[in-house]
Amino acid sequence: MTTAISTKITHDDLLRMQEDNLPREIIDGELIVSPTPSAFHQRVVLELATFIRNFLRVNPIGEVFISPLDTILAPSQVLQPDLLFISRERAPIVQRWVYGAPDLAVEVISETSRRRDEVRKRQLYEQFGVIEYWIVDRDARSVKIYRCGASGGYEHPLLITAAEDKTLTSPLLPGLTINLAEVFAE
Description:
Helices cover 24% and strands 28% of the residues.
């Protein structure tokens, strides 16, 4: 009788792999390699990062980073959010990589990543204490915002759309207003 042995991949294993510039994440010890993002995806990430970076230049309350940057929640839970914000209070988690939960994680979803971003990554971000998680849907021109509530878990998400001429705000970045029409402009 043979016994199957399951080996979980860790961040250390990831560091030993040959570099090929493909996004690599580890979820529950499973290596996930994704294709590189589309140009429109990258435009959306850049627009969001620019809004936040410009805000932080005037209000130095933390740092914004864009992918690829390993965010190590646990040795077998390594994600690369498209964008992340880390407040001054959590600044010690920023070292060579990010070791712990950022305040804000943002994922711009595509058809190939939709289920993973909306289900498993959301669960991991919630479990490890990411205060706010934005799921940006470039096709629907919308942002779904999950925020930690009094219970510590995410509350019912808030949906903001460019079609309704809505602006995006966050208690993590008080005073920042992001015009979604500008974010999704082509």
